[in-house]
Amino acid sequence: MKTEELRSVFYKGQKITYVLRRKKVKNVNLRISRDGSVSVSASPRVSISFIESFVEERAAFILKTQEEFARKADFSVGPDQYETGEILRILGYAVPLEILEGSRESIDLMPIGGSGDLQGRSLAHLENTVDLQGYHLVLTLRNPAHLQKKRHMVDEWMKGLVSGLFLRLMEKGYRAYTCYGVPFPELRIKTMTSRWGSCQPRRKVITLNNQLIHYPLAAIEYVVWHEYAHFIEANHSKAFYAVLEKQMPDWRDRKALLNPLKE
Length: 263
Fold this sequence. Notes:
By secondary structure, the chain is an alpha/beta fold. Among the domains are: about 1-75, no CATH class; about 165-255, Zincin-like, CATH 3.30.2010.10. It is about 30% helix and about 25% strand. Helix 3 crosses helix 4. The chain is elongated.
């Protein structure tokens, strides 16, 4: 029997994922961390059916607590020790990690309890219909305790996702603004502490904050459309917002998904 495994149950159509840890404990214990991850500890003698019933009985409480934590969450905060059950935010979704031991090192985004690898770079070709609920990021390593290796694997995987997805959205935004005759700009990606994006119209450059990858796709699109609008209106005048409103009527709702940085 595994001492630690990722499992899930359904409650009113919603999937609740949790880490089951087998320990020498008297009772079945439930813990919900501030990142939204759920863990259950139980003796090896406790059956899976009992544990699933235990989680299902507390499902409403779990979902309510996760929702409260999500409202206060800083989406840019990632895993700490890169252990099974820790949460990585990808496009607004809480994606748990699963760490496995194996001779072939790999990192794959896969449905929990199912098959079918969804490689990170393929996400760059998805539109607003992307739904990562029920997915987990599986890291297979020869030494699962190697923290630096795990962090490096996730960082490199995320860089590939960011570059592919952001370029895809830049191309989509360019098509939306072709009626204004804007040029296709150079895309730069970097970490910024005070802005989600910036535009240099004369140099034909748009820079995007790589931390956007943790937020919903609709919010990232808003930042891209916002920066494109600066090719028509350089400041945040009424004329600027008229352009943005015409191309993205729901921009206010999208902006509300982000932390209050400057665009």
